[in-house]
Amino acid sequence: MEKTKVKKKSFVLRCLDGIEVVGNRLPPPMMIFIFLAAAIIVISGIGTALGWSATGEVYNTKSMQIEETTINIVNLFSVSGLRYMLSNVINNFMGYKSLGMMLTIMFGIGIAEYSGWLNGLIRKAVQITPYKLVTPMVVFIGAMSNLAENAGYVLFVPLAAMIFKACKKHPLAGIAAGFAGVSGGFAANLMISSGDAVLSGFSDMAAKIMDPNYNVVASCNYFFMATSVFLIVIMGTFVTEKIIIPRLGEYKENGDGTLIEESAEMSAKDEKALKIANFVFLGIILFIAVSCIPQNSWLRNPETGSLIDGSLLLDAIVPLFTILFFVPGLVYGRISGKFKNSRDLFNGFSNSMRTLSGFICVAFAASQFINYFNYTNLGRILSINGANVLQELNIGPIPLMLVFILVSGFMNLFMTSASAKYAIFAPVFVPMFMTLGISPELTQVAYRIGDSCTNIIAPVLSSLPIILQAMKRYDKDSGFGTLVSCMLPYTVVFMVSWSVMLVIWMLLKLPLGPGAYIYM
Fold it and tell me: What's in the keyword line of the UniProt record (predicted)?
């Protein structure tokens, strides 16, 4: 009798399995953040005793100028630190941006899901989307959703899991693909975003240190970043289909051994409800789109007329998305008979909030840790000292940009705010690289590559509890180790392929944006 040969896993897959096992042996996410917060308190005390500090040119938000500043560590391991922590527990929790966004948008998504509209919509979307295009579609929408900043984490990543599940793909692979697009491809977009405006402002001020007449505009990286969208989609699809899906294997509902059930056929009443709800959904989108057209639109910035910088469209993106899902969900529920009275509607609201209990627990601990990390200045000290080390290197433009990408990516693991970190980096690197003939626009591109690629494995990412909560919904045993083992391949592939793309761009001396070039 012949023995069945068992196909051995590759070295890479075995390593990822090991990362998942080790990572999931860690305590639950809430406890991890509590331990990290305690570690920050102790480290701040040690750093204060040893006199840790960092000196560098940093953008001062009060004076609106770049100034040489010495950043000292702030001690939490003291009476004054204890007083600060106790008096700010509630403020930290209530000021945790992702919490308010998640709770608000779940009122809309919860009703859309509870009514059955979201399930029907996804099933119809899957029916008309070729199977092979599902993954690239998810990665592409994820990359484009960074226009809405953090709303992509709250709204799209959970939806990506639902889409994959409806296509008989593993929902955790959907979370990975969506998260990779939203966060790993954070810098890439076919449109100019608020991030372009913020970072170019820092680059402009830093460039004026060397040349008062030099101007850096928001569109300075457009050609490169728009092209990057296609790179992210191709590489994200490759990793998802060739590494993540094969590694995760066949999906079993809630990890209890039950296979995915086939969706039941929709009744004629449900079909009618879906059609009307979809028209309502498209009508709301059309209304918002038409409202954006007039220069004096209520959705634009009342002073500048911009749809990006300071506009109501972006400032109210979460409430708008809540309405976008709530209204069609309500319509579907009424027509299908799911919502017969206000009590049924309330049950839909309460059911959606019930699913967030684990997220709220994690958010409480994460909000304290992130606040302590920022308050003690540990992230800023690491960034400035890392910048000083890189400044001492004496290598050519291409190796220098590659090293700069790695440094930006490494620092992003400790300080994920792109603007706060670049406020430290820009005054140091932009003038220094200008003396080597490297344009501020190229420095900004290299920074954005490194900053984006490691978002998806950063333990201090503010939206991390959202992703972990979404994973728990499909795999009760998943944890931070599962997340890192899924996302690490994206980080490596994005970092390598994006860096290669930059090298090719530099060798061909292609423009980075309108009037923005590689070299001075």
Answer: Membrane, Transmembrane, Transmembrane helix
pLDDT band at 406 (very low <50, low <70, confident <90, very high): very high
* Whole-prediction pTM: 0.71
The tens digit of pLDDT for each residue in 74-113 reads 999 999 999 999 999 999 898 876 678 778 878 887 888 8
Q: What token pair was written down for 66?
A: 């770049």
- Token duo for residue 81: 């630190």
Nearest Cα to 429, choosing from 408, 443, 415, 413? 443
Classified as helix, coil or strand, 193 is: coil
Eight-class DSSP state of 209: T
Q: Determine contact, residues 165/474, Cβ cutoff 8 Å.
A: yes
Tokens (6 digits) for 391: 């400044």
- Bridge partners, residue 315, by sequence: none
Cα 56 to Cα 51: distance, rounded to the nearest angstrom: 16
* Residue 449 C-alpha from the chain's centroid: 14
Distance CA 519, CA 509 (A): 8
Count of positions (residues) in the chain: 520
Q: How many CB atoms lie within 10 A of CB 297?
A: 17
Q: What share of the chain is helix, strand, coil (3-state, %, to 5)?
A: 70, 5, 25
Q: What is the pLDDT of residues 307-363, one digit of tens each?
A: 766 788 877 877 888 898 899 999 999 999 889 988 989 988 888 787 677 778 878
Q: How far apart are CA 360 and CA 320, in angstroms?
A: 23
Q: Which helix (H) or strand (E) covers residue 33, if one does? A: helix 29-50
Q: Which helix (H) or strand (E) holds 55?
A: strand 53-60
Which amino acid is it at 239?
V
| Dihedral pair phi/psi, residue 149, rounded to 5° | 55, -125
Mind listing the pLDDT tens digit for each residue in 481-491?
A: 888 888 999 99
